[in-house]
Amino acid sequence: MKAALLAALLLAGGPALPQENPLQPSATWEDLRQSVLGLAGDVAQDATVLDLEAPLRAYEAAIVPVRLVQPADAPPVRAATLVIDENPAPVAAEYGFGPALMPLDFEMRVRVDSYSDVRVIADTGNGSRVMAGRFVKASGGCSAPAGKDMAEVEATMGQMRWRSAPENGRHVGTLMIRHPNFSGLQRDQVTLLNIPAHFIDRLEVRQGDEMLFSLEAGISISEDPVFRFAYAPNGQPIHVRVEDTDGNRWDQTFEAVSG
Question: Which residue ranges does the record assign to the Sulphur oxidation protein SoxZ domain (predicted)?
């Protein structure tokens, strides 16, 4: 019930999320910044270019809503890396964004395993980077029990739903994908054995030949992931390609939306 309620809020746009939770000093980030991301120095924060919204205290640690937003006159974000400092695999996702998503208004759901900064480092072109983030109080998101049994997982994995509707002068698309996104840290609730990691690691969403966004992901994207984003429709069908770590691939095309 809790998961369903939060999902409903996310898909509806939800109420404004609390923003009294800025990034905290993090020894973990000091290490990750250079050893994992190859950044010699810290990256400036500038909410006039990019902001990240996330709740101060997560309602459900396995489906924490995170939203990337830009003002109308901000420079375009070409790529972004989402990092959850204290997760077992801190780099949660690497995104590429197409021009139709600018200015960025992009939501996803992630797992947060312990109290942690959740941050995004974005590339705005010509070697320029900007960082945004929030401190989130959550615990156990990466090992939280899966919401479905194995039989249901097998029956529904790879199913997709797409919807798009005008909102505030743009179109907002919502893509829902059925996949357990097993983190490798969960247990089967029947056998009590560890469930091997099995998650979506690549995703492409296009309208016609134009890229809307691409994703390379790790274990931190939630079960049955949902992506909600504002975009400019070009009148072409929406093509979605999903690949997972077991070598499965699913392709689906949804009818065009007029501008």
Answer: 174-254
In a structure prediction context, what are the per-residue pLDDT tens digits for the chain, which is 259 residues long? 444 444 444 443 444 344 579 999 989 999 999 888 888 888 999 999 999 999 999 999 999 999 999 999 999 999 999 999 999 999 999 999 999 999 999 999 999 999 999 999 999 988 899 999 999 999 999 999 888 788 888 899 999 999 999 998 899 999 999 999 999 999 888 888 899 999 999 999 999 999 999 999 999 999 999 999 999 999 999 999 999 999 999 999 999 876 6
Burial, 196: exposed, middle or buried (Cβ in 10 Å; 0-12, 13-18, 19+)? exposed
Question: Is residue 134 within 8 Å of residue 22, measured between CB atoms?
Answer: yes
Domain containing residue 154: CATH number: 2.60.40.2470
- How many Å apart are CA 219 and CA 111, to the nearest integer? 8
| C-alpha to C-alpha distance for 220 and 216, rounded to whole angstroms | 11
- Report if residue 259 sits inside a domain: no
How many domains, in total, are found in the chain?
1
| Reported pTM | 0.90
Instruction: Give Cα 9 to chain centroid, integer Å.
Output: 16
Domain that holds residue 69: 2-254
